[in-house]
Amino acid sequence: MTAPAAVLAGDEADPLPIVMVAAMARNGVIGVDNGLPWHMRSDLKHFRAATWGKPMIMGRKTYQSIGRPLPGRETVVVTRDPAFAAEGVHVVDGLDAAFALAAMLARTSGAEEIIVAGGATIYAEAMKRADRLVITEIQLEAEGDAVFPPIDPLQWLQASRTAYPRGEKDDAAYDVVVWQRR
Ligand SMILES: NC(=O)c1ccc[n+]([C@@H]2O[C@H](COP(=O)([O-])OP(=O)(O)OC[C@H]3O[C@@H](n4cnc5c(N)ncnc54)[C@H](OP(=O)(O)O)[C@@H]3O)[C@@H](O)[C@H]2O)c1
């Protein structure tokens, strides 16, 4: 299972794109009390479609808030707790190991990109490595304790923005915004 990170990730001639997928309120909030501050069935469907078949990296807290491995995606959980174990997911002790393992999983399954799925700590740490941000902007203000890191317009170009109406099981309308690293 273990292989040198440089061989699997950084030194590859053609490294796989790293895509951060997140949903945030207008004020940047992404979470509260280790959960989501909204009900957005449409975004859950969007998340499933955007991540399906791709290896997904997430922090231990986000994994525990979901509470189970999501189907159709290999999950790599990052933790500093050597005793942490969970069935049906891969557990690693840092982001270098997470990207190396995700790259290997993607090569094995034929996935064309690696997903970073949060939460706030992992987004902040992984942002410098990301190639694309796929952000659901939920058209509400939320109170919370977890936020997405600032998106610096000098580093990120807004490639597209698509507006969607509020669905029957959604708290608000939303836009899906794709940012590409400049
Ligand atoms: N709206 C969205 O799109 C979205 C997506 C995902 C999550 N969320 C929300 O975000 C919140 C959770 O975010 P969070 O920042 O509290 O937690 P998190 O990023 O999910 O997990 C943090 C944990 O990851 C581990 N970790 C982080 N960096 C590490 C590193 N460099 N090396 C090893 N382990 C590392 C640590 O685990 P240990 O403490 O075990 O060492 C740390 O406590 C929740 O409210 C969740 O619902 C929202």
UniProtKB/TrEMBL annotation:
**Family under the similarity heading:** Belongs to the dihydrofolate reductase family.
Keyword Transmembrane helix on this protein?
Answer: no
The record's section on PANTHER family has:
DIHYDROFOLATE REDUCTASE
What does this gene product do?
Answer: Key enzyme in folate metabolism. Catalyzes an essential reaction for de novo glycine and purine synthesis, and for DNA precursor synthesis.
Q: In which pathway does it act?
A: Cofactor biosynthesis; tetrahydrofolate biosynthesis; 5,6,7,8-tetrahydrofolate from 7,8-dihydrofolate: step 1/1
Q: What species was this sequence derived from? A: Labrys wisconsinensis
Gene3D superfamilies this protein is in? Dihydrofolate Reductase, subunit A (3.40.430.10)
What does the record give under GO molecular function?
dihydrofolate reductase activity
Sorted keywords for this record are: NADP, One-carbon metabolism, Oxidoreductase
Its protein name is: Dihydrofolate reductase
